[in-house]
Design goal:
Layout lengths: L1 H12 L2 H12 L1 H21 L2 H31 L3 H33 L13 H19 L1 H13 L5 H33 L3
Helix pairs in contact: 2-3, 2-5, 3-4, 3-5, 4-5, 4-8, 5-6, 5-7, 6-8, 7-8
Keywords: Membrane, Transmembrane, Transmembrane helix
């Protein structure tokens, strides 16, 4: 037990690279790599083939996965975990969160990269929606990506590292769950606003 406790403290106090390695091992290295390589492969293929259509569908598909999971996690998965006993909830968190982090970063990065190419006519694959609205959509998209890294991912990782501690604090985990719900509602509202914005200029409204 002492060795396990020491290992938990080491993970929580280690640097960025060591934490990423630990998370990749916990998620399964193949899954962690695939979460980036699969969506980004479609993005790369779109560029290599100079296919605006493939790029558009890559953007829509990756965005649907990102938006859907980002809403489902705090709205459904979080409350479900909160209804489990402490041991079961900790076990699921230790398995789920490392996978969720890689999965969401891979798909959200693909979404904003593909959207940037689509809305930047100078790159050759855009739909030509240059202007204030497309610039606003890009700004909101990248802002949402940065927000995801800075807030919900950090909250999820805080819960994960808490479950690794020798004596997880249930009150802290409950507090993180409540924060996740609030953040998820905010993120969902911004995502819906972004969808309305993109639909509007796509239809020429």
């Amino acid at each position: 037990m002492a060795v396990a406790d020491e290992g938990s403290r080491h993970v929580a106090e280690s640097g960025f690279v060591d934490r990423v390695r630990h998370l990749a091992d916990a998620a399964n290295p193949a899954f962690a790599a695939g979460s980036f390589l699969v969506p980004l492969a479609f993005f790369a293929a779109s560029l290599a083939l100079a296919s605006t259509e493939l790029l558009f569908y890559t953007h829509v598909a990756a965005g649907a996965v990102w938006f859907g999971f980002a809403v489902i996690f705090p709205a459904l998965i979080g409350p479900t975990l909160g209804g489990l006993d402490e041991e079961a909830s900790a076990a699921v968190n230790r398995t789920l969160i490392p996978k969720a982090v890689f999965f969401l970063v891979g798909f959200s990065l693909t979404t904003v990269l593909s959207g940037t190419v689509l809305l930047t006519p100078d790159l050759g694959l855009g739909y030509g929606f240059g202007g204030t609205w497309s610039g606003l959509a890009l700004g909101v998209g990248w802002g949402l990506f940065a927000f995801g890294l800075a807030v919900p991912h950090r909250l999820q990782l805080s819960a994960y590292y808490e479950t690794l501690s020798p004596d997880p604090d249930s009150s802290r985990l409950e507090s993180i769950e409540k924060q996740n719900l609030v953040v998820g509602l905010f993120e969902g509202a911004v995502m819906l606003a972004l969808i309305v914005l993109m639909t509007g200029f796509r239809l020429g409204i």
